[in-house]
Amino acid sequence: MRFTKERKVAYVLLLMTALIWGGALPVVKNSYEETTAFRFLFYRYIFAAIVAVPIIFYYFHRVKAKTKSVIIISLIELIGVTLNLALLYTGLSKTTSIEATLITMAGPFITIVGGIIFLKEKEERNEILGLIIALSGTLLITLLPLFADQIVEVEFSLEGNLMVLGHTLINTIYFILAKKYYNGYPKFYASGVSFIVGLISFFIIAALEIGGVNELLSATTNEIVKPPVFFAAAYMGVLGSVVALTFYIKGQEMIEISEASIFGYLQPVITIPLGVLWLNENLNIFQIMGITLIAGGVIVASVRERRRRRKRRHRVIS
Fold first, then answer.
1. Most buried residue, 23, 58, 127, 130, by most Cβ within 10 Å?
2. Which residues make Cβ contacts (< 8 Å) with residue 221, sequence separation at least 6?
C-alpha cells in the first residue's frame, strides 16, 4: 500500500468525517426532549437544502445526462438518506447514544466484507490486522457486559437496537452503491441532490406523523427556535450533511471502501465521552478498553505498512 499524497488527503477527509459524525448522536439525542426523530430530520434538511440549492445550480449544467444523474442519485439517496436515517434516528429515540454507537461499530466490518464481495477489493496485511484489532474492541464493548451483569449494569432497548442494526446494514448497502455509481459525478452535486431528497421525504413523513401539513408547519415554528433543536438541526444540516457526507464520498473514492470504512471505528471515541459527560449515560471499563483497541486498530491499519517500507529502504541504503 503506497502512502501517496492522494491517500493522505483521503485520510484527512475521513478523519474529519469521523470527528463530525462522532458528535452526532449525543447532539441529536439531546434535542429529542423538544421534538421527534422525523421532525428533527425535516429540520436538519431545511438547513442542508439551503446550502444545496446553489450547489445544484452551479454543477447542474456541468453534468452530462442531467435527468439520468438526478434519477440515479435520488434512488440511491432514498436508501442512504430516507430509509437509512429513519432507522437510525427512530432507533436513537428508543435507546441511548452509547448503545446506538456500539451497534453501529459493526458497520465498518460489514462494509469491508461487502467491498471484498461486491467490489472485488483486496486487503493489505496492515489493514487486516487493524481490522482484527478494531473488531476485537467492538466485540469487547458489545459482548462482555452481557456476561458480566454482576459487575456492570447493562440496559437494552431491543426495538431501538434492532432499528440501529437495520441502519448499519442499510448504510453498508448505500456506501457500496455510492462507490459504484457516483464516479464521474461532482461530489458536492451528489450531496446536494441527496439533501433535496431528504427534505422532501422527511417533510412527507413528518407531516404524516403529526397529522397534516398545517400541524407540521405550526410545530416547526415552535420547535426549531428552541436551542437544543436549532443546534442539532444546524450541526447535522451543515456539518453532518454538507461537509461530512461530501468528505466521506470523496475520501472513499480516493481509496478502497474497505480501508475508508475503518475510520468509522473512530466515531465512538467522540460519541461515548459526550454521551457520558453531556447526557449522563453510563460508561463501564469494558467500553474504555474497547475504545482503546478501536483507536489502536485504526492506527495500525494506516501506518504499519508505511513503517515497514521505511525499514526496507533503510536496509537497502545500509
1. 130
2. none
Is pTM, for the whole model, over 0.70? yes
pLDDT of residue 2: 63
> DSSP string of 94-163?
TS-HHHHHHHHTTHHHHHHHHHHHHS-----HHHHHHHHHHHHHHHHHHHGGGG-TTTS-----HHHHHH
Q: Which domain holds residue 162?
A: 5-317
SS3 content of the chain, % helix, strand, coil (to 5): 80, 0, 20
> pLDDT digits over 86-136, tens only?
999 999 998 888 878 877 876 766 676 676 677 676 767 777 787 788 778
151 φ/ψ angles, rounded to the nearest 5 degrees:
-100, -45
Q: How many domains are contained in the chain?
A: 1
